[in-house]
Write a structure and sequence with these properties.
With about 500 residues, the chain is of the alpha/beta class. The protein has 2 domains: about 290 residues, Rossmann fold; about 160 residues, Response regulator (Rossmann fold, 3-Layer(aba) Sandwich), CATH 3.40.50.2300. The strands form 3 sheets. Strands 7-6-8-9-10-13-14-15 form an 8-stranded mixed β-sheet, with helices on both faces. A 5-stranded parallel β-sheet has the order 2-1-3-4-5, sandwiched between helices. A two-stranded antiparallel ribbon has the order 11-12. The relative contact order is 0.13.
Length: about 500
């Protein structure tokens, strides 16, 4: 398969080439759209006259300042690309909605603003590259909405209300594995919507109707983390520290699989705290004392990054952990800490922190790597639309742009599978295709095959070492096949 899935034609088969089919599809779509717009315009004018206001909601938008000045540059680019699509291809586009938790505390949403910004940049990158392909329609518009704790429900209702007029075919983004994300996904699933998530890793959301995921599950990350722990400390003695926050599916499933991945002789004890309480940092300080007196050489941390610096600081203040060295291993949420900090997050470099990442730019340049040259060019090339040229001051180090690009790419390749149909696919058509076990694309994080039910079959899980100043170093990768660890 080529990097964008373009079919060069079916010569000798008697079937029309995709470009011919695409042209007919575009003409037919344009005629139908013009008619619907004319009728819809009459209705809207009537409503405005009677009620005195426009019915268009701003829940889904590409407006520059809709979600704060930090996102304005990428929102401006999205708006400009949308305007080009509407101007040049008025009857031949579809719309994908990107949902991110724009409101709520970090504990509630599990994503910081930098991760959200990088995620939007990756999604926009996939949009641009699809629209530049010399192939058949549809072209792609992108709208952005918030699925924070206070606004997910009206945003979902806006998606449902505007699906026909906006030609909405799928939702991507969707945030981390929190309670709010679960409610968002369940509401969309209940109405048959297609969703492609970049960072939902909880095993509790496996098999949700219409949901495809490009990220490694927590069960896989836990097994990969334990494999790396044994490599770092061959005589592994581990303490599992778990967050009991009842609203967070990520921490719950990560803890369960860390414990289940350890042999009895490797398991020292389990300790817990609740991040939803006021003084969880104090509890973590006491936990660090227990860990350092336990004879363990490894901590498997099943919690969010927001509380992790408190644990790292507490460990580095205790001589019984510092002198022999202590290894802390955690899941992909630690990518939230992967950015240069003005002050060190913990004190002693003999306390080492590794995490299982969802993606890393090293995977784009590894000798013998599985990323196609054409896909690599989107992130490391000199093309005017390549990531370094479009976002010259941004980093790929946290992997967010890469995995969100891949989630959007999966959605767009699925749309293209319907190019021979006389009409644009509905979200329900897309949901059926996404979870049928037939979707396979070449992503920036490697080959992506979405198996029946929506999970990604084979994952290359990068292992990163995070330094106290927020910089990171690539420490290798572990291949997960059929749910278990393969080569490393």
């Amino acid at each position: 398969m080529s990097d964008d899935g373009d079919d060069p034609g079916r010569a000798g088969t008697g079937e029309p080439a995709p470009a011919e089919v695409g042209a007919k599809w575009a003409r037919d779509r344009r005629n139908r759209v013009f008619l619907r717009r004319a009728l819809a315009g009459v209705l809207v004018v009537a409503v405005v006259v009677v009620l005195g206001f426009s019915v268009r909601t701003s829940r889904l938008t590409d407006e520059s300042g809709a979600f704060g000045p930090d996102l304005a540059p990428v929102m401006d680019r999205i708006a400009a690309e949308n305007a080009e699509v509407e101007k040049n291809h008025p009857g031949a586009y579809v719309t994908v909605v990107a949902m991110f938790p724009m409101t709520g505390s970090l504990t509630d949403i599990g994503l910081n603003r930098e991760s959200i910004r990088h995620g939007l940049e990756g999604i926009h990158l996939a949009q641009v590259w699809r629209n530049r392909q010399p192939s058949s329609p549809p072209y792609v518009r992108l709208l952005v909405g918030s699925d924070g704790p206070d606004d997910w429900e009206p945003t979902v209702e806006a998606i449902k209300a505007r699906t026909a007029d906006e030609h909405i075919v799928a939702v991507t983004g969707l945030g981390a594995s929190t309670g709010t994300t679960r409610r968002t996904v369940e509401s969309l699933s209940g109405s048959g919507y297609a969703m492609v998530s970049a960072v939902i890793t909880s095993d509790e959301l496996t098999g949700v109707r219409g949901l495809a995921r490009v990220a490694a599950l927590n069960s896989e990350q836990a097994r990969a983390g334990v494999v790396h722990a044994r490599k770092v400390n061959p005589g592994l003695k581990a303490v599992v520290i778990k967050d009991l926050n009842p609203a967070d599916s990520y921490v719950k499933t990560l803890a369960r699989f860390y414990t289940g991945s350890l042999a009895d002789r490797e398991r020292v004890m389990e300790l817990s705290f609740d991040s939803s309480t006021r003084f969880s940092g104090t509890v973590l300080d006491v936990i660090a004392e227990r860990v350092c007196n336990s004879g363990a050489n490894t901590v498997l941390y099943a919690g969010r990054s927001e509380q992790l610096p408190a644990l790292m600081q507490a460990l580095s203040q205790r001589d019984r952990c510092v002198r022999p060295g202590m290894t802390v291993i955690t899941g992909d949420d630690a990518s939230e800490m992967n950015r240069k900090a003005d002050l060190n997050m913990w004190g002693d470099t003999r306390i080492r922190l590794f995490y299982t990442a969802l993606a890393h730019p090293a995977g784009l340049t590894l000798p013998g790597g599985e990323v196609l040259t054409a896909i690599r060019a989107r992130f490391a090339g000199d093309d005017p639309d390549a990531f370094p040229r479009v976002f010259p001051h941004e980093s790929l180090g946290d992997g967010m742009a890469i995995v969100h690009h891949d989630a959007m790419f999966v959605a767009l390749e699925t749309v293209k599978a319907f190019a021979r149909e006389p009409d644009v696919p509905s979200p329900q058509d897309m949901a059926n295709m996404l979870t049928s076990g037939t979707v396979a694309v070449e992503g920036a994080s490697g080959p992506i095959r979405i198996v029946e039910g929506g999970a990604r079959q084979t994952k290359e899980i990068p292992i990163l070492q995070l330094n106290p100043d927020g910089t990171s170093a690539y420490s290798g990768r572990i291949t997960m096949t059929d749910g278990g660890p393969g080569r490393s």
